[in-house]
Amino acid sequence: MATYSPTHSVRIDALALALSEHFSDFGCDLYAEFSELTLAVPVDRLLEVARILSNHADFRFEQLIDLCGVDYAAFGQSEWKTDEASYTGFGRGVDQDTDVIIDDSKRFAVVYHLLSLAHNHRLRLRVYAGGNQPMVDSVIPMWAAANWFEREAFDLYGILFRGHPDLRRILTDYGFIGHPFRKDFPLSGQVEMRYDPEQRRVMYQPVSITPRVLVPRVIREDRRQVKAEDGKESSDA
């Protein structure tokens, strides 16, 4: 288990110590940032870890507060080369970065937020679900509240939950194609819906709006104090 940075809370330090003692042989990584703990769990050990966290007296995480999917496509990388934009004129013509690399094995993840009422502890779990066909085990046997949360993550991200009793969409319409929270899903969607007063029913049709790219803010250094070659203040001041 990875070494975590010291925290300011004695209670969090005690929880971190217990997590290290119980899961040092599970291939987990423990992170402490902003006085919060995150336990990264290998996907094949999720059920074992969840069962211990739920039942063991050292933890007793009885309550699942939240569960959500994450798409880490191009995480930490900018899609636009704004630092290379011109400093003169009305320069908003930034270039799109086409060299962004996606680590497919860690593209999708599932994040769990747990609460222990007995110990007043909170913990975040993170499990990478893979890329091509993301899948993790369902944690409903430990936390029944995961039922609708897992359906939501399936609906919006396409993450499959092995062992879920009724895995189907929960937010999108019947017959919806794709998963709208994925980074590669078009912002304008794929179809639009309207009511036809003549036929007195809802109609589906291809998207009629024209997709457009919103150019982000251009990042420039502060040039107000930069002197030109002739010694005068820059006109950008």
Task: Characterise the protein shown here.
The chain is α+β, with helices and mostly antiparallel strands. It has a domain of 134 residues: Beta Polymerase, domain 2 (2-Layer Sandwich). 15% of the residues lie in helices and 25% in strands. Strands 1-2-7-6-3 form a five-stranded mixed beta sheet. About 2% of the residues have low confidence.
Reconstruct the topology from this structure:
Blueprint: H1 10-23, E1 29-33, E2 36-40, H2 46-55, E3 63-71, E4 80-81, E5 95-96, E6 108-116, E7 121-130, E8 135-137, H3 146-157, E9 160-162, E10 191-196, E11 201-206
Parallel strand pairs: 2-7, 8-9
Antiparallel strand pairs: 1-2, 3-6, 4-5, 6-7, 10-11
What are the defining features of this structure?
five-stranded mixed beta sheet; single chain; Beta Polymerase, domain 2; alpha+beta; 237 residues; two-stranded antiparallel sheet; 15% helix
Strand count: 11
CATH superfamily of the domain at 10-72 and 107-177: NADH:ubiquinone oxidoreductase Nqo5 subunit
CATH topology of the domain at 10-72 and 107-177: Beta Polymerase, domain 2
Straight-line N-to-C gap: 53 Å
So what's the oligomer here?
single chain
- Mean pLDDT comes to 83
Q: What is Rg?
A: 24 Å
What structural class should be given to the helix and strand makeup? alpha+beta
Strand line-up across the major sheet: 1-2-7-6-3
CATH architecture of the domain at 10-72 and 107-177: 2-Layer Sandwich
Number of helices: 3
Largest sheet: 5 strands, mixed
Please state the overall shape, judged from the principal axes of the Cα atoms. Answer: globular
Percentage of residues assigned to helices: 10-25%
The low-confidence parts are 89-93
CATH class of the domain at 10-72 and 107-177 reads: Alpha Beta
- SSE series: HEEHEEEEEEHEEE
> Approximately how much beta-strand content do the residues carry?
25-35%
